[in-house]
Amino acid sequence: MNLENATVQKTRKYKRIKITAISKLNDTNCSVINISKEGMMLCGNWRSTEKFADIQLKIGGKWIYLKGKIMWSMDGESPELKRVGVYITQAPPEYRDFIENLYLEADEKK
Prior knowledge:
Elements: H1 3-11, E1 17-25, E2 28-35, E3 39-44, E4 52-59, E5 62-75, E6 82-90, H2 93-109
Antiparallel strand pairs: 1-2, 1-4, 2-3, 3-6, 4-5, 5-6
């Protein structure tokens, strides 16, 4: 881990868990790169400058609807892809259960 990553990790409240999940951000298809109790990083092909996010996340064959605030964005691995960091502002209980299970699974792997 380089010094920059160590600094970021110290300021983060919750550990990020790498996952791959189908999702939509403001009706545009994208993928979840990582997720935590308070947010997620998404990668997709959009040009939007919106500050708020309507997120659809497919978990176990079911779509879960979230609301969030876009905190940052940057170019991805190719020019047409963007990565965005989203802070989750509203989530149903199914989402919280999903996140808790991810953390339990990550702890069991240690």
